[in-house]
Structures are given as C-alpha cells and as structure tokens.
Amino acid sequence: MSSQMAQLQEATIKAQCKSLRMPMIASQFSTLAEQAIREKKSHIGYLEALLLAEIEERGLVEAATA
Fold it and tell me: What are the tens digits of pLDDT across the range 41-60?
C-alpha cells in the first residue's frame, strides 16, 4: 500500500471515530495495529484490543464485564 493511501485511510478512520465519538480508537488504532502485527494477533484480536481500550478510557470496564 502506498504511503499516500495509508495517510488517506488514517485520516478517514480518525474522522469516522470523531463522528462516532470514539477518541481512544482514533488515537490508538495505528499503535495497536502495529502491536497486533508484532504479536501475530488476528483481526478479531486487534478489534478486541481497540474496543477494550475505548471501554477502559470511558471508565466502563465494570459495566462491560458484568
């Protein structure tokens, strides 16, 4: 994938996250994607990590695990 395409995708994801009011995902998706690659996580594992980060940021951990 070209660098220009990657930048466009990142900008699009950040804009979508802003619309959905998901600031943690907007700020962490790239870092967590790199981590998922290093740890050989599946796309489901990556998504789980993203959502957990958002839940933790919002202080909803207890509600999500209850």
Answer: 999 999 999 999 888 888 86
Distance of alpha carbon 34 from alpha carbon 4, whole angstroms:
18
Distance CA 65, CA 24 (A): 19
Counting the structural domains of the chain, the total is 1
Name the one residue in this structure whose structure tokens are 């959502």.
51
Chain centroid to Cα 57, Å, comes to 12
What does pTM read for this prediction?
A: 0.73
Question: Tokens for 59?
Answer: 């202080």
Q: Are 13 and 24 in contact (CB under 8 A)?
A: no
